[in-house]
Amino acid sequence: MPPRAGRHAVWPDRIRPEVINAIQLAGVDHPWAHQATAAEHALDGESVVIATGTASGKSLAYLAPVLTSLLDGSEAPNGRGTTALYLSPTKALAADQRRAVKALAAPLGNGVRPAVYDGDTPVEEREWVRQYANYVLTNPDMLHRGILPAHPRWSSFLRALRYVVIDECHTYRGVFGSHVAQVLRRLRRVCARYGSEPVFLLASATAAEPARAAGRLTGLPVREVSDDASPRGETVFALWEPPLTEFHGEKGAPVRRTATAETADILTDLTLQGVRSVAFVRSRRGAELVSVIAQERLAEVDHSLVKRVAAYRGGYLAEERRALERALHSGELLGLAATTALELGIDVSGLDAVVIAGYPGTRASLWQQAGRAGRAGRGALAILVARDDPLDTFLVHHPEALFQQPVESTVLDPDNPYVLAPHLCAAAAELPLTEADLELFGPAVPELLPQLVEAGLLRRRTTGWYWTRRERAADLADIRGEGGRPVQIVEAGTGRLLGTVDEPASHTAVHDGAVHLHQGRSYLVKRLDLADSVALVEEASPPYSTTARDTTAISVLETDTEIPWGGGRLCFGSVEVTNQVVSFLRRRLITGEVLGESKLDLPPRTLRTRAVWWTVTEDQLDAARVNPEQLGGALHAAEHASIGMLPLFATCDRRDIGGVSVPLHPDTLLPTVFVYDGHPGGAGFAERAFHTAREWLTATREAIASCECEAGCPSCIQSPKCGNGNEPLHKRAAVRLLGELLGSAPPPPSAGTPDPAVPTDLPVPRSAEAGAEVTGRAQEPSARPVGPRGT
């Protein structure tokens, strides 16, 4: 990717000279054109989203007007006439931004007083932050649970609130984004109570329609600045497919070397050459494993380099995270294996290379991660190492899908009743809801409020709706969509707390017999106690990793929209999913060879959500030459591959979605394949699949047909988490079936004609029965026992 020259501008006249001087002392003589434009909008009181590339100076674009405003406010009699709030999706990013702001504002004296307010902030410091800090850095979780419910204690801060900065706003998508959208509406409502109307300044990686997405997130009109005027060095981008090994997997399928092992070897080579590198790995366990393998390889060559490689992931204790961040900033660490906790904006200067272990799910995340290399305009290397997976295989053989396509739109649905209902309760607890508030929270409110009253969650009075329970209303909403108490991971012999894992993820990550990795050490889970939310582990060094498998059944609750595809149907609506983790595989390290499978006895989880599904008729099966013996395998193979390909069309992770295939479903009375959102009430992914069904299923058929294997492999139709042991699967029948289905699809719309697969009058999401308990999150692909087969 060729280099790009930068375009300078001048700061607006209203930026204070002291602020411009501080910026120049930091080494920035003139702003880039997009920085000056964004600052102008902010000073005009217009909410603005800055959607430019990594390392393009987005932080400076919003800090210039923010620091100017804070200096103006410092001249008020109370010394805090103006305040600003900064929101980041991770604690690490907030801590990093505080360091950057403190350094930048040092020449400004006490006029700017930044402080972090999150779960790691000591209790004794919190009162000082509330009373004296004028730039508070926090996260949506703390705003939701700590600040808004206690807004009277924050009254002087909120009364003076001029700017709200929302960093990395492209991460607020799906269910999490929908929750954050409602938290921001609650913030705007409480601010109005104190007489303030803050301007929102949003920073985003390059995204499709950033102003529209930012407006959906904040509920306000937002101006867009997306013309990136910063310079960029040349970037070499390699697509890397690991080689086939001599081993064979299930049903004799060929097995490629794992992306984890390949990434660890590349990180080792880069470290030996003194190249500062970060390897991004999708899972916490994967990050630990890459770090361990790289350290072992380095020990064989130069033992002094072992301590210069480490892992960084969520779930570490606060002091562990901070120590790693300091080592990274100081250059003490040369190589790092990280989850997306590092992807989100920590300023890592001087990186030369980025290795990405597996496609991260969206093009936006891919460019965000790749952009970490070559900061400050230098040349860089980025390597995408493909996993043995249908989507990754498709991408390394079709690079145009990465390099010639725009980044995705951000999908979120604040009107999702499962999201909206608890935030209405939280809002009523903060200040009684009135008729004037209803428009702020969206069109689904009038339908939902009577149900909340009937369920005893709110009480209707002449002046509005009131929260009357003793419990904290904010506790009703788990904004990360994780559900339940975090499970503590405790070393059995010492009682030492190693970390935590979300309750839904505990079924797959810390079940009995699971291998858990923590800071380069491996542990075996002796017992998972769901009642006490504790997983007891013992240190061990097994020569294998573990992968959980689950089963799923599904029922149709309501069909919202359906379109004829020949005799079959493409449908979108509401479903109920029952999921259960049933076993786990032991896989040899490095090669991924399956060593054995062990059964598990864990409780099922139920989930009401949204799904897309398609049916085929007997005539279509005959036309595709799919006989009854092949039918189950054809549907199952198409389901696995379609789930693997959906992240190319919707801004989801493979773990955000699930699926089920059934040769004869009791609700449709036809062979049916379902793909559903793995979050209560839906997250917009299945809806996106419905809208793009023709392109999505065409790419799915292409991915299967172009794979070089004979009868199916992990690169096309096999899933490593298939609860039915990848049985049955029929590759060729799946290709014929998808071909016949696509041949029956409605023709693409001509210009100006609405696509029949994109309804122009989508209904407001149907609210669930008040008080209904819905839990669960989709796991990665897994087929199901005889009957429904799901992923």
Please explain how this structure is put together:
The structure is a single chain. With 791 residues, this protein is an alpha/beta fold. The protein contains 25 helices and 29 strands. It has a 7-stranded parallel beta sheet with strand order 3-4-2-5-6-1-7, with helices on both faces. Strands 23, 24, 25, 26, 27, 28 and 29 form a 7-stranded antiparallel beta sheet that branches. A 6-stranded parallel beta sheet has the order 8-15-14-11-13-12, with helices on both faces. Residues 751-791 have low confidence and may be disordered.
Q: What's a concise summary of this model?
A:
The protein has 791 residues and is α/β, with parallel strands linked by helices. Residues 741-791 are annotated as: Disordered.
Coarse structural class: alpha/beta
Terminal CA distance:
37 Å
Query: What coarse outline follows from CA principal-axis ratios?
Result: globular
Give the total of beta strands: 29
Q: Which regions have little confidence, pLDDT < 50, spanning 5+ residues?
A: 751-791
Helix content: 25-40%
Largest sheet: 7 strands, parallel
User: Largest sheet, order of strands side by side?
Assistant: 3-4-2-5-6-1-7
**What fraction strand?**
15-25%
Q: Please, what is the average pLDDT?
A: 87
Compute the gyration radius: what is it?
26 Å
Please identify the oligomeric state.
Answer: single chain
Total count of helical runs of at least 4 residues: 25
